[in-house]
Amino acid sequence: QVQVVESGGGSVQAGGSLKLSCTLSGLTFDDYALGWFRQAPGEEREGISCISWKGGMTYYADSVKGRFTISRDNDKDVLFLEMNSLKPEDTAMYYCAADHQYYGMCSGVAAKYWGQGTQVTVSS
User: Fold this and answer.
1) Which residues are CB-contacts of 91 (< 8 A; sequence separation ≥ 6)?
2) pLDDT digits (tens, 9 = 90+) for 57-92
């Protein structure tokens, strides 16, 4: 049984930083591209950053480019999202997801396995 569990969310002031983690089990980790998605109340879920199977390719949405960094540890089966210079508009539920396909994963908000999410709240 595949399990996807996010952690590291919380409340910070604007300009602060958080680092999200996502642990995956029940699958062959490096067979999967991974991504971070977020959904604010009343908004559609968006793909903000994705990373290919061995980390050689990454994608960032324009809204987070230059502030967020995605990385993965294929030895420990963990995905990370380091978030700096946080803004109130970054407030959302953040989800980790996995899929065999990297291309289109973020833009299409398409993945086979999803976590339950971790809340990030940024106050001004």
Assistant:
1) 40, 120, 121, 122
2) 999 999 999 999 999 999 999 999 999 999 999 999
